[in-house]
């Protein structure tokens, strides 16, 4: 028998077995599955390909928003997935001791060791949270603040340098503020996690890490939506394409950071190591967090604390440049509160800047850095203890549930005119409206798995904004660069839903003047 004949017969038998199997699976998921009555796009009701496709295109949060509008407040967005968009569901899912992160988080575990982010076991997570959380409490932030301020001062100097390097048509050179905030975010986290000066703001040597982080987050997000991608070994492909040299460079950097820290005295830096070293389970007798695990936890700080805060700051600059009235009001508040740039630091004066806080909250609402659906499921030992209820729906065992943060933050039931950047909404005297909004505002998620670094995020964003506005006047760059980051409406026919001026890309250009 020739090879081509053999291949043909093989394919025929594969088709004969595989196609009926596929038909059975699709039929079961559409007509017999416990979630069959929930509406949603047909493809999503029987396959994860739907969510996977949009996750790969980085549009899943927008599509989820559109689908919730189209199909109703609870939709089936995967064979075993339900997405909700109410504040009641938010409480029932995330503020619930019976619920844990979904098994898809296991797909993000690197080198076989779960971190605080992807530890699913209740006890294991509690131990990690108790330990790691110590490095990012309000108290820890007060010790770390001088280091953060030093880095922010470098950031201000970098804006100064970039805007004055050559004169542009408006008298100063346009600056891509997103690039600068990314480097700042990573430098701050490098100090907090490893007590190490990566100096990405001033020296390009370690900037390759930013690209690696972006690929890592993209992969993790895609795998969680479409687990088949990981099963097919896509991550190996990325590693191969990324190349041996960059992997070696990364390992070398990690090695340097760890050995440099270990060569110093335990409490020489205000960093993660110093905050937790006395509580590590050094000999493995207490079943606690071991020294070897600490460095993987530290690595998680880069996406957790770097990427998110950077996105928030980038969004803030974007909206301030687009909403001149907001910009003027904020600049006036900062300049009236502080009489010099050096006096800007954490404390009562900074907290008294209510408009600043309102601007940060509004940016986190309109462009939440974590914008997707954070999947959860019932702990297996809770199955016998009574039904799992979410916003009045009894959730069948094995179902992953979540609330789309982006959709909730743009839900008109909670936020009037949700696509308008309006910090004043947070300063309303109307208690009922304020309570309604706060109940749905969840950029940091909530409950036991909510963000541990909230205090750090607010401190960093407040200091960066206050110092930049104190030193500079900035405007949106004119011409094409001024349009960077604006929503590309071609993707969907939903022009009525999304207004021009909504941040889409993670980039925005501004023109800065002293
Ligand atoms: C604006 C900035 C930030 C936003 C919007 C944000 C948002 C979030 C969200 C939504 C989660 C839950 C993720 C999930 O359930 O899968 C989370 C978890 C976490 N975040 Fe943040 N975050 C921010 C900044 C930070 C910073 C600065 C740190 C400090 C390093 C940090 C540390 C963590 C940690 C350790 C977790 C895991 C918590 C756990 O599972 O116990 N975050 N964050």
UniProtKB/TrEMBL annotation:
Family affiliation: Belongs to the cytochrome P450 family.
Cofactor(s) it depends on: heme
Superkingdom of this protein's organism: Eukaryota
CDD domains: CYP67-like
GO molecular function annotations of the record: heme binding; iron ion binding; monooxygenase activity; oxidoreductase activity, acting on paired donors, with incorporation or reduction of molecular oxygen
Cited Pfam families: p450 (PF00067)
Transmembrane segments: 12-31
SUPFAM superfamilies according to UniProt: Cytochrome P450
Keywords, sorted A to Z: Heme, Iron, Membrane, Metal-binding, Monooxygenase, Oxidoreductase, Transmembrane, Transmembrane helix
Residues noted as binding heme in the record, renumbered to the chain: 451
Protein name: Cytochrome P450
